[in-house]
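Example A, followed by Example B.
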Amino acid sequence: MAGLYNAHGSKIIFASRFLPAFRVLVPVFAGISHLALWRTAVPVAAASAIWYGVLVYAGAMLGRNWRVLLPARCLVENPSSPARRGGWGRWEGVKGETARSFYLERFEDYLRFERGLSSMTAAAYASDLAQFVTFVEGRGFDSPGEVSLGELREFVYHLKESGQAPSSIRRKLSALRSYFGFLQAEGIIKSDPSELLEGPKTGRQLPTVLTPAEIESLLAVPEGDSPLAIRDWAMLELMYATGVRISEIVSLRLRDLDLDEWLVRVRGKGAKERIVPFGRAALEALGRYLQDARPVLARATRKGGEGVLFLARRGRGLTRKGAWGIVRRHVAAAGIHKRVTPHTLRHTFATHLLQGGADIAAVQEMLGHADISTTQIYTHLDRTYLSEVHRQYHPRA
């Protein structure tokens, strides 16, 4: 160190401070070499100031542009943040001034806080509406009050020409009707241009359902005394017994069960609650799960499952993805070759009730449908079943 100093002076100490291998050791070697304190301190302090100044500047620039580095799903919007006002996030592609003039943020707040829609549903509405706003803005419209039925029809034609499926177009029109209905209710527009808007006609597809034999084979798949096998059995039994959605089954908590009355409280879409009964088979499976399986799974985490009914292997609440995997795995093991999803069990629940003579209004209540027309699709399934029975057994069919 002394030789280098004699040859190059304070410059070598200043330069060495920037080398990763020597930066920490420079003061130590300076002391060993008996260099004057001020001759060491001044270049070290100057180099350190530059080094840490560069780090602070780089960190500040990174903080300002951190949104660019992360995918949108990893970010949480702040309603008052400049990023959201500028069109980032759900209203991607919409300028901040346009979002304000079309009252997009107020509409999103209405969806989430007044209608109680889930964040996923609200995001779908926002995506569809952002597409519409971008479309009308490109045609010179600056506010929703300027939009007429003609522009809405032009938007529908645009969607058709771009190859959108009829079902996707109908979903977007549903978002538009909600949006303009909200604006009219708030007094922002005088009339709703979407009232007379017609969407593309689509043939209603009957959902896939399982036969009673297929259901029996599926529910018989989870075997053994392992906690996971018992959990899968209880979950499948409860899904078929109540017709709950996958989002509802994973959000059930222990307090939602009433084993004495054979009832479960379900929180559905729009944060609406309903009480659904279940039968003896589900009661037996749930009793076994709560007594023998859930306590074992809950011990895998300190929080003991935090009151969630169905737990994963590590003691945390089961996720939608995990529930999907359970259904898919057991359907394959049962040898069922239909395309079966968790929602198929919901369809099967409703269809089997109607085939057994249940009242459609009671089925509507158990499914949590706001409109009975949604439930009526299962009457078509029931008619198909009855027609097959008639053709098979009637002597003059």
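Example B, a separate protein, is given below in the same form.
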Amino acid sequence: PEHLLPKLSRHARNSGVLQDKIIRLVGNNASDLPIELRLVVYRDPETGITYEYLTNIIHLSALTIAKIYKSRWNIETFFKWIKQNLRIKTFIGTTENAVRTQIWIAMITYLLLSYLKYKTRCQFTLLKMQRYIRENVFARVSLNSILLSDSRERMLRRCSRPADHNQVCLQL
């Protein structure tokens, strides 16, 4: 089986591929898994972390496999970030368009909150900012009075006073 794999190129070794070989899993019931797998060991030059990838893909180079799995891991990390930061627990729709729309809306919300936090130098977490804005969305109060208040009590006093407008205003 080793002869099926080409010898590691200098470029692959210089790019982080440490090992590329065909293996067979063994154990008490090795006959239960009579397939051979490819093991690609890769050290990420950016982080220095070593990864071991098991695959049944034989026709691609070891460096290509390492890059594919690294990209796939970045996608998984991105979705983890979405769940943690954008507070998307489940997708409302199942079509590609529905999922994309929900992600875009969540990202826009996150970016707007981040921008508000930056511009107002607010000390609240994004989650707390979002919560305060949600609680006061129909109050006649400016965002500055919500985000720049010294304490929660001061903010609540300001929220109870009538404002000049009939809607929440963004003053930066």
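On Example B: Residues 91 and 126 are 21 Å apart (CA to CA).
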